[in-house]
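FW: tagging you since you asked about this chain on Friday. Here's the raw sequence from the shared folder, copied in full. Didn't touch anything.
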Amino acid sequence: MCPETTQVWHAGHALPGPETADRLEGAAVNINSTRDPAFRFPLSLRSPVRFGIASCLGCYRVRWCFVFHGVSMSASGNRQLQPSASKGMEAFSDPAAVARYAEGPPRLVPGFADLQRMALLLLAESAGESSRILVLGSGGGLELKVFAEAKPHWTFVGIDPSAEMNRLALATLGPLASRIELRDGYIDAAPEGPYDGATCLLTMHFMPREERRKTLSEIHRRLKPGAPLVVAHHSIPAGLHERDRWLSRYAAFAASSGIDPDKAAAGSAAIGSKLPILSPEEDVELLGESGFDGISLFYAGLTFRGWVAYRR
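HL: got it, structure written out here
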């Protein structure tokens, strides 16, 4: 779950036009929402709702805060939306919100675009021209779009806990969504495979150690022998002073990218206190314990590290 580091960037009234609503309703039939039938499409996207959009400095996902007929609810990109708070609540998505979401990661993750490009190159080293790739933490669709545009014969399975974020992914992907199956849930929602490769970008830092171990083991089980896994997330050297020093650098980077310095500092402090961030040594150890070998560091950006590893 996102730490309490969100800051509202925009709040107002939104009423999607018929063309937007029709396009999103038509696209969303690709989502497998068996875990949350209340959010299956088609749903009306034309009811006026008041909403706020916020960026969580911990996960770089949009956090949605809705008011439906006076009843508040919220959902982040890393936790499934709970519809039970109010009967008749309707899902909402808007291309303008997708555009705002896409602004966040480049401002907060050093070399974000290059991280995605490197992940693609590492997958392509082993995956053939007609490959099937598992993308864990697919909400928003940014890396899926990069991968699908570069590899027109690849197909993908994207998994994300948030139905809302998967809907954002569909709006981001547009016609590319025809080659992508999106599922709401965690790793156990992923089809068995086998897959030619997998990615998990900016997601693992939300998982406690044992949950990471289970997730990595389940990814390993679904990959073909020799297939790569590309991961990247917060990974900070152990030691109180080391952690504080790197988190301070992260906050400085966010501020240099246009984030209010006080908000950047508050977000950095919350990340340090609330996220179960491991050290690089612990991350490598978990990959090995989960059955991967050939583990290599390919990316380092302040508090972030990225590794490629291969199924034995």
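FW: DSSP finds nine helices and twelve strands in the chain.
HL: agreed, and Residues 1-95 have pLDDT under 50 and may be disordered.
FW: great, closing this out.
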